[in-house]
Amino acid sequence: MAKNVGGVDKVLRIVIGLALIAWAIPLGFANTGWNWVGWIGVIPLLTAVFGVCPLYSLVGLNTCPRK
């Protein structure tokens, strides 16, 4: 698969993913009973690490700089 996640997009995905996981654990957040939803943060982390977003592929988006 071709990479379709650019630099700024990767940073945002990492920040959002880590914040969601911190909410799931909960680190510094109140336990609401819905904290398990924060484990969705694994998805943006994985897409940032691999540089490929399947949803971007379906929609036809690409935030990578052109080579």
Structure description:
The protein is an all-alpha fold and about 70 residues long. The chain has one domain (about 5-60). The protein is built from three helices and no strands. It has helices spanning about 5-25, 40-50, 55-60. The relative contact order is 0.27.
SSE blueprint:
Layout: H1 7-24, H2 42-50, H3 54-59
- The chain-level mean pLDDT equals 92
Order of helices and strands: HHH
> How many helical stretches?
3
Low-confidence stretches: none
Q: Biggest β-sheet, characterized?
A: none
The dominant shape is elongated
In terms of DSSP E residues, the strand content is under 5%
Total count of domains: 1
Q: State the distance separating the first and last CA atoms.
A: 16 Å
What is Rg?
A: 14 Å
Q: Total number of β-strand segments? A: 0
Structural class: mainly alpha
Helix fraction, binned, reads: 40-55%
Structure at a glance:
With 67 residues, this protein is mostly helical. Helices cover 49% and strands 0% of the residues.
Give short descriptive properties of this protein:
mainly alpha, 49% helix
